[in-house]
Every structure is written in structure tokens, then in C-alpha cells.
Amino acid sequence: MAAPPSFLWTRRVFLTLLTGFVLLPVYVMVSSSLKPLEDVTGEFRWLPTGLTIRPYIDIWSTVPLAKYFVNSLVVAGAATVCSVVIAVFAAYAVSRYDFRGKRVFSVTVLSTQMFPGILFLLPLFLIYVNIGNATGIALFGSRGGLILTYLTFSLPFSIWMLIGYFDSVPRDLDEAALVDGCGPLKALFRVVVPAAIPGIVAVAVYAFMTAWGEVLFASVMTNDTTRTLAVGLQGYSTQNDVYWNQIMAASLVVSVPVVAGFLLLQRYLVAGLTAGAVK
């Protein structure tokens, strides 16, 4: 049954308005990043009169953006790898085995998502400082401490999401692998994990994006050496001036890895997010 013409026109108008609403801030960012500072701070113009790529050159010298970039890649990458590896083992155990406290564990993992992250800021700060004073292990102000902090956010969600995905993978695959001589670990990595690639990719993207754009904990748990991009962008705002064109340029540059990764993994991400919705 064909849709009526009124519905088609309404859909087109709505999608056009929605697209314009989404792309308008992006256009303002791009146009502002290609203007001199005096043009950005002056009267706003939709069409810039003088274009320059100088802001994209100056962003690397105004603040140590390259160092912040490396810190963000290391922290976000390590947090993503640890979150995926731990979540795969934990979710597989919950999905495939019955053990005492299984329901309590699942509910506890899910309930951690109900609390705002700011509640964990002071406890983690005190824990890291006390561990450093007692053992000499410097978690506060280090990349390792920030990675552990991000695991407290991404790991519970990753486990819960992979439990639903592993539940959608037929148990017959595990049983067939066991009959063929595979142990539990070989069955996991040779059968279940390849079948769960979309869900694992979705978890990895979520963990990476959570760590890449986080500001609150990164502003408290880091110092000048370990500062990440989300905090380092504040360096373009000084007591004397705010380099708006460089802020826009730097924001576009730091968003490239996330956007590129999302475009490359989009088909896996969509399949992973919808997995387990239909039994």
C-alpha cells in the first residue's frame, strides 16, 4: 500500500528541517575556524569574507595539543581494550553458566548506571590519594588512574549489553564446539566471539566515546603532563582573550577520530545496538 502524497511531503519537510537543525552548528564551527579572530569576535556573518587556515596551524602552538591528543588516544584506547576484554569474559559467564549470585551480580551491574558520575568523584579521589600514600603507586594524576576511572563507567554497561547479545547467540554453537573437542575458552574465542562481533564493536565504540569526551574526571584526575583533549581545549581561553577560531578548529580536529571510527564501524554498531531486541 503506497503512502499518500501528503505523508511523503510532510516527511521530506520534517527531514529537511531536522537536517538543517543538526548541520547548522557544524557549519558555524567550520566557518568560524576559517576566520581571523577579529572576524569571529565581531559581527556574525553567515558567509565569511576572508578565509584563512591559520587557526589550524596555530592550535598546535597555542597549547600542547599534540601531547593532549596522545594522552587521549592512550587513555581511551586502553580503557576500550580493557572494557571489551573484561566484559566478554564476564558476559559469557553470566550468559552461559548458572552460579550462586548470578541474578544479584546482573542487577548490581545494571544498578550502577542509575547513579550520576559525580558521586564517584570524591571517593575515587580519596582512594587514589590513599593508595599513593600507602604504596607509592601514583594513580592520581596518571594515565593508569584515569583508565581505571573510565572503566567504572564503561564496564558495567559493556557487561550488560554483551549479556543480551550472547543470549541471542544459539547455545547449539557452543555445544557443537565442545563436541568437536574445543574447551570453554576455545568455544568462546572460535565460535561465540566471531558471532558476536557486532555487539563487541558497539561496546568498543561506546567505551571509546565515553573516555574520549569525558571532562569532569579528566579535569580533576590529571595534571599538566597527563591532561586529555577534553580538558586541554580550555587552554585556548586565557585571562586576556578567548581564541574562538582556534577553539572551533581544535574541536573539529579532535572529533575526526571519533567520526571516522563511527563511519567505518557504522554497520556493526547498528547491528550490535539492536541485537537481542527480538528473541
UniProtKB/TrEMBL annotation:
Compartments (UniProt record): Cell membrane
Membrane topology of the entry: Multi-pass membrane protein
Protein's recorded name: Carbohydrate ABC transporter permease
Pfam families with a match to the protein in the record: BPD_transp_1
Domain ABC transmembrane type-1 stretches: 69-265
Keywords (A to Z) from UniProt: Cell membrane, Membrane, Transmembrane, Transmembrane helix, Transport
Sequence intervals crossing the membrane: 12-30, 68-92, 104-127, 147-166, 187-209, 243-265
Source species of the chain: Streptomyces griseoloalbus
